[in-house]
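The aim of this short unit is practical: by the end, you should be able to scan a pair of folded records and say something sensible about each. We start with the first protein, listed as its amino acid sequence and then its structure tokens.
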Amino acid sequence: MAQAILAQVARTLTDHLTCERAMRCSVELALLSLLLALAWAGPPTVCSSDSSRSDGMSLLQRRSHQTSPAPALAEAVDAMHFIYTVGCNHYQLVQAVVLDHTWREAGNAGRLTRIVVNCEDEKSRAMLDTSPLRGDRRYAVFFSEGDLMEVPGKNDSYPARGRPYAIMQWMKAASPREPVVAILDPDFVFVQPISSHPDLHKVRPGQMLAQKYDLGKDFVPGFAEAGEETPVLSWDEAVDHYATGPPWVLHRQDLEAMLPDWGRYTDSWPRSKGLLREQDAFAMAALKHKVPSIGQSIFMVSNPIAWHEAWSEKGSAPESWKPYVLHYCQSY
């Protein structure tokens, strides 16, 4: 299955990547080959629990699990819309093609939209329009307008800033009718359909589903940075309900309400805050608008020493590690 997916990636990119670009993609494709092999292959027959603690590759192999063959393409449904944002470059195009392919192969129901940020010329737009889902009525590509990565007045180009502002543009232009929106990262490989999550029915105005991240109360000082009073929030409340990241699965009504503050809080953080200021800003917006999460530890695997992932429970058997996505974000 992994080889078939890589073959699809190669076929999809052939018409849009020159030889030089293809060579630059070799590292990304090698990484994705490993990830996809882990996602779609069964667990190895020989690997002791002791060796998995000391051998990083064995650890990853043991923490993969067997998935059933991908079902036939699911019919469109009106309940859920998946979205993700990417920059206008071949690196994120490779990620996007893999996400698109595995989203369908895992059997997700609903719709999927790729939102492309800072892609102005026609040649680049043609490249970022590349997808194995082209022609699928459940799939769309949206190109945002303007430079959304530049933080106004700060001489600061911050790529992650594009996410809330591009989603604002998409919401206004597309007027999605699905009541539930799932916000993904582009560096996801699906192994199970999130649309079949047993707690999906609990998503409603004022309550979301999201993956727990080890952020603690790291986002709370952002209120002072934005010139607002710092809310009272216990450690347990922060960890259980607000210290989250993608996948974020929330009601469209809540997303619409949170978006302006998500963007504003992203801009209010100092540059020294680093890469996660946009993610912390989402947590701040969720807290401000009283949209706690039913925090999930099973949505993903990413960091083998994380506290709140599908493989984090001490002493758990590899057979119990059944994430919905592999999140390969550890190389940034």
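Turning to the second protein, read its sequence before its tokens, just as you did above.
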Amino acid sequence: MNHAQRLAHARDVLHRAETASGLSRTEDKQGWQTPQALTPVLPTLTPGIVAIEGSTTILLAIAGHASAQGAWIALVGLPLIGWGAAAEHGLDLTRTAHIPSPGARAPDVLTALADGFDIIVAGELALTVRDRRALAQRVRTRGTAILSTDWPTASAVLRVEGGEPSGYDAGIGHLKAIRYTVSSGSARTSCLWTADGLVDAPRMLRAVS
């Protein structure tokens, strides 16, 4: 066995050991289920890039739902999101990396993360058109998904409106839910962010009526 063969064998053994111990992502994963409330606009999160405009809550809810299924998540360029917010939205912190401000190194950071993480949650980053094109190709070949607040050439775009709180009465009371309307093309759905996560708004309203 020559040097190249030994190296390939070592990498294969390492990969199998990591997968068996839960220390690496599942390479044959074809997609991640999204919260049921969002299935009308995003049935499955597959390799590629999804832009989510108007709400970091919806962004993190999708990531948290995938994290509960075993996904490895990287948060990049989101300095205002801390570990507490990540955990509140369902992310397993033992399988989450956080790079708040990658700066000019953003292209290199994202390229490296695409090789080891299932989902990259990205904020506003210093990326050129060429960087975005190269990263789009890389995540497709690596089986990675990017959820971004700012990606003009995303393969899918979710537009979020609303964010109105409910549960207050003339300034008195506790916040019970935040209502959002999410659309993608002609598809549209309403949902509520509650203490139990993201739920379908019509079903929630029927339950409390």
